[in-house]
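3.2 Worked example (two chains)
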Amino acid sequence: MSMTMLTVLQATGVSAAYLAVTLLLPFLFLHKKLHGFANVPIRFMIYFMAGNFYVMNLVFLLELLHLSFRLTLILGTLAPFIAEFVRKHKGSFRLYLERGIEKLSLLAGKEMGRKTFLMKLGVKLKKMSSGRMGMRMSGHWMDVLLTCAVIVLVLYMYGLNTVHVYGYCASDLVLHNHWINEMNSNHIFADGVYPFGFHCVVYYLHAVFAIPVYVVLRVFYLVQTVMIHLMLLAFLKTVCRARYTPYIGTVVYILSDVFYQYAYYRYYASLPQEFGMLFILPAACFAIAFLRERDFTAAVGREEKGLKVVNLYLILFAVSISMTLAAHFYDTIIAGLLCVGIGAGFCFRCFRWRYLKRIVAAGIAGLMIAVLPMAAAYVTGTPLQGSLNWGMAMLSSGSQDSGGTNGKDADDGGKEAEKADKENSSKGILARAAGMFTPKKTARILERIDYYVMNDNIMAVKILLGSIAVAFLMGLLWMLFRKAEYGAVLISLSIFTGLLAMLQVSEVLGLPQLIEVTRYPVYLVYGIAAVWSLCLDAVILSLCRWPKAMNVLSMAGLIAACVIVAETGIRSPRYITAYETNEAVTCLTDILHDNRGNVSWTICSANDERQMIGDKGYHYEMITFLRKMQSVNKNTEVTIPTDTVYFFIEKVPLYYRDYINSEIPDRKVSPAGARKPLSDKGGILPYIEDARWVTMSHMYYWAQAFKELYPNEMEVYMETDRFVCYRLRQNGYSLYNFAIDYGYNGND
C-alpha cells in the first residue's frame, strides 16, 4: 500500500474515532433529552462540547488516579449509558442482560448466522427510524449541501498537505508526542504542569482505538480544522437572521487570498492552541443564548424536559470556558476578550445583577474546573512547565514584539507617547489618546496590520477596519430600531475584533502584548469572517423582513461573495515544510510494520523519531553517535545492543524551521560539509539550518565508509534521491564496533 493511501485511511480512521466519541455518543445519550430544544446548530455545539468535556476529564481523572488503561477508558466511556440503562430498566435489568447473553451465545455457537443477526438488527433500526430522518431533513437539503461544500473546501485546502506532507509541521509536536507517550505510564504532566486537554484527547484516541500517537498527531489537524470551520458556521447560524449569510463569511474565510499566511499556517499542525479554538465561539454562543433568554427576566426560567434553559446555557458556557483553558491559555485570553465584547454589547442586560452574578459565577466555575487537575498535580509536587512560566511572566509584564514590519518599527512619536504616559493629569491622558492616531501612527497601524494580517493590500486593511466600524454602527442602529438583542450581537463582535486589531498593533499604541504578535492574525481573521457575515445579514434584514425574500437575497449575496473571491484571488492549497522528510516517516512506518512483536531494533537518526516510535523500539541520537568517534583510536568503542540497527540519513538535508516553504536552495551532503566541525550545542541545534547539513554530511560519509568494510551486512533498506536508510543486522552476543575512521572524524 502506498503511503498516500495509508495516510488517507489513517486520517479517515482518526476522524471517525474522534467524531464518534465527541459527536455520535453524546448524540445517542442526549438527543431524546434535547429533542425540540433550540435549533440544530446549538444542539450540534452541545453534543460536541459534552463529548470533548467528558473525554478530557475522564482522562484527567484516571491519569491522576494512575488507573488510565484501555479497559478503564472504555468502561468510563460507557458508564453514562450503563447508568442510564440501569435507571430506566431497574426492575427488568436482569432479564435484558440474560436475553443479551443468550443472543450472543447463539451467535458465538453458530446457532444463529451472522446474516440473520444483521437482518434482525437492520429491521430494528428501520423501525426506530421509521423515515423520520427524511421528514426532518425535508426542508434543510440546501443547508446540508452547503455544509458539505464547506467541509469539502476545507478538506481540499488542508487535506492535500496531509496526503503529500507526512512529517510533523510544527517543531513542538515532538515535545507534545513525548508528553502523550508518558501518559501511557499514567505519568501526566511529565514535563511540568501545563494545559493538557489536547493531550488527553490525543491520548484517548491512541489508547482506546490502538492508533499510534505519531499517527494521530500527523493527521488529527485535518478533522480539527474542519471542526473549527464548522464551529464558525454553527455560531453564525445562531446569530444571523438570513438563512445563507453564515456561509458567506465561512466561504470567504476558507477561499480568499486576501489574508496573509500567518492567519492559516498553524492549521497545518495538530496543536493545542488551534484545538482550543473549537471552544471559543461555542462559549460566546451560550453566553449570548443566556442573555437572550427572555423568560429569565421573570427570574423563573423556561423548562425543557426538566432542564432549566438558563441553567443549561450557563453550564454549557462554563464547560466551554473550561476547555479553552484546558487546551491553551491563549484561547482563554481570546475567549475573555470575546466576553468583554459581549458584556459591552449586552450591557442593557449584562449589568443587571441577576444576569451578571450568574454569568460571572459560570465563568469562574469554568476556569476552576480547568485549573483543578493542574492544581492537584501542582500541590502534589509537580512544578509548572517552562512555557507556562513564560506565559505567566509575559502576561504580568507585557512582552515586547520581536517581529518587525519591514524594519519600520521605530518612529519619532514613541518618545512623545512615553512622556504622555508618565503624566497623571487629565490633560496628559487626553494628549496621549490624541497621539495614538496621528497621521504617522495611523499609517504605521495600517502597515502593521497589512504585514501580519493582510496579503500586501492596504485597501483590504481599510476594508477590514471599516467593516468593524460598520458592524458597530449597524448594531447601534438596530438598537434604535428596538432590535436590541440583534444589535447587541453586532456590537459584541465589532468590539471583539476591534480589540484584537488594537492588540495586533499594541507596540505602536504602547499597549501591553498579551500573546505573541504572530498569533493574533489566527483569531482576528476568524472573527472578521463572522463580522462580514453579520454585516451582510444586517443589510439584508434592513432591506426585507419576509423570510423567503431574505433567503433569496442571502443566496444572491453568497453567489456574489464567491464571484468577488474568484475575481480578487482564490488562495491555493499550501504544502508546509515538515520537520521530518516524507521518506523518514515512510521508512519509520515500514520499520514498525516489519518489527511487530519485536523490540530489539534501534533507529539512529535526528531527534524527531525518538518520540514517534514510543516503546516499540529504541532510538540513538545521531549527533551523540558521531561525537563518540570524533577521535578514533584502538580503545574507542561505539556499540548499539539490538539485533537490528537502522540509520536515517538525508542526502539533501531539510531546512529545519522553514515552516512556510521559503525558497531555500537544495544543498546536498558533501565533503565540504563533512570537513566542517560538528556542532557542540545541545537540543535540536545540531539539526537546524547549516548545522544539519554538517551533521548529515558526517553521517553520510561514515555510512559509506562502514558499508565498504561490511558490504553484505550494511544493506540499503530504502533509498531515494534525497534520503537513504541503511539496515544492519547483528548478533546480539557479538556486536559491531561502529567507531571507524571515516576520513572526517577529527575536524573539530
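3.2.1 Second chain
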Amino acid sequence: MNISGGIYEVKGCSYILKGYNFCITAPHNSTIELLLYEKDNIESNADIIIPFEQKYRLGNVWAVRLSNCNLKNYTYNYRIDGAVIADPYSKALTVTSDDIYRSVIIDNAAYNWEDDKRPKIDYSDMIIYRIHVKGFTCGYASKVRNKGTYKAIIEKIPYLKELGITSLELMPVHEFIDHNPNYWGYAGGYYFSPKMSYSSDKKPGGQVIEFKNMVKELHKNGIEVIIEQFYAQGTNPSMVIDSIKYWSEEYHIDGIHIISYNDVEKIIAEVPELADVKIFGNSWWNIDFSHEYIRDNNNLIEYNDSFMNTARMFLKGDENQVNAFINCFKDNPYNVAKVNYISHTNTFTLMDMVSYERKHNEANGENNRDGRDYNNSWNCGIEGATRNRKILALRNRQIKNALCMLFLSQSIPMLLSGDEFGNSQSGNNNPYCQDNAISWLDWRMIKKNSEIFEFVKKLIGFRKKHPVLHQKEQLKLADYKGRGMPDISLHSEKAWYPGMEIYQRHIGILLSGLYAFGEDGNKCDDDIYIAFNMHWEAHSFAIPDQSEECEYEVVIYTGENEVIISNRCVEVEPRSVLVLVHHN
C-alpha cells in the first residue's frame, strides 16, 4: 500500500485514478487516524490503522490517498482525538453487532445504468405521488415480496402507472439518526447514504445498488424520482450542496424537495450542476428572478400549504372563500412552478379530513399536545368511524369534491399515497413516531373504497387528456389573444357574473379550450365548465351561450341525481361538483 497526499476537493471516500481518496474535515490541531476493517470483522479493533500527518492537511481539510491496494472488501471509520466516528460523507453505512456505524467503501463506477435517461416531465404534465418508502408497502395486503423497501416500489410500478403517476416523491431516504422515535426521517444523519433499513439487500452497500435499481426501473417506465431531504439545524451549507449534487450525479434523481433550517435555497438555485434537477422549496421569495441564470434555467418549484388551506375551507363551506379559491385554482406562476395538494404528511389524510374535526394523537405519547390544532376539517356530523349511511355518503362526496379541486386546478397536483383509496390514520395528524399500522397503508381499502379509487383514476386521466386544465401560462381572466372569449371566466346564477358576496359558497368556472393547443400546435382543446357548489343548498348555474350549437356533455358529477341542462342553466345539488365539456 502506498500512502500519499490526497485530493482536498472531494470529501468522503472515492476511488480516483486507481487509488482510494479519503478526505474529511476536522480542526487543524486534531489527531486523526483512518481505521480500516475487513468486512467480516465485527470486533472493535481495526485491521489497518493509518495516521493522518500534518502534511496531508489544507486548512481544516485532511486528505490521504491509498494506492497499490484493493479495499473493496473493507469498511472504515475515523478516530479523531480518540473518538471513533463514521464518515459524515459516507456513501453507504453498515452496522456492527453492537450498533456501531461503519462507512462502506463504494465504487460508483461499477454500476451499470444501462443508458438511463431522466424522463424530464414538463411541469404542466406532472402528477406527483408522495410516499413513505417503508409505510407504502409495509402494511396489510400490499401484495409485494419485499415489504417496506426500495425493491417493493419496483413491484408497485404497474400500480403507479395504472393511477397515472408521472413523478414519485419519497420522504427522507438518507440514513437519518435520532435518539427519539422518528418514523418520518426529519432528523440529521448521513446525507449521502440511502437508508439501510429500506433495502432488502442487507449486504454492506446493498442499499446503494437497490436504490439505483429502483430509480432505473422507474425511469424505464417514464416515472420521475423526487427525494425529500431534511437538513438539520447547523448543517454546513457546503455539505447541503455537495449532498444534493451527489444524489443528482450518482442516483440520477429528477428532483429534490429541500427542508432546511438554513437559508440555502437561494444558493442551491444558482448551482450550475443542478440545472437539470427540479428544486422544490417552501418559498422562493428571496430569489432575484432577473438573475440571468435563474431566468434562463427555470427549475424552481414552490411547495407550501396555501392551496390546501384555502381548498379545505371552501370545501367545508366557510364563508368568504370563493375569491381565495379562484386565485388558488388558476394560480400558475411563470417563474416558479407550484405544487397543489389537499392533504399532506403533517395533517389529516383525505379520509380523516372528512371524518374528524379534532386531532387524535393520543398514541404519540404527548397527551395530544403535538400536531396541528387547526386542520380546516369537518367530520360531516359524527366524529370518527361510523356506520351511518348518510354520513358515509356525505364523506364520500366530500372526498370526490376535494379531489376535483386538486386535479382540475392549474398547478402541479400532488396526491398523498393512500388518499386514492381512503386510507385513514384514525385521526392522528402527526404520526411522526408511529412505525406501525397507524402510518402504514392498508391496501385492503382499495376494495372497500373502490369507488374513490376509480374516481381518482378517472380524474387523472381526464386531466391528462385536456391541456386546458394544465396550461403552461398563468391564466389572466382576459381575452388577451383575441379568441373571442377570455381564457378563464367566472359565472354564477348569471352568466359572466361571478358574484363575490361574503356569503357565497358556489362558483362556475369556464376554461376556454381556444387557449390550450394539442401536441401538433394547431388543434385546440375542448371548453370545460366546472360548477363548484360547496353550499348546503342547491344552486342554479348559468352556462354562457358561445354558439348556436353549444352542446355540453356531462363528464363528472359528484351529486346523485340526473343532470338536466335547460335554457342554458343547470342545477347542482348541495356540496357537489359538476364538470361539463363542450367539444370545439
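3.3 Remarks
The first helix runs from residue 133 to 137.
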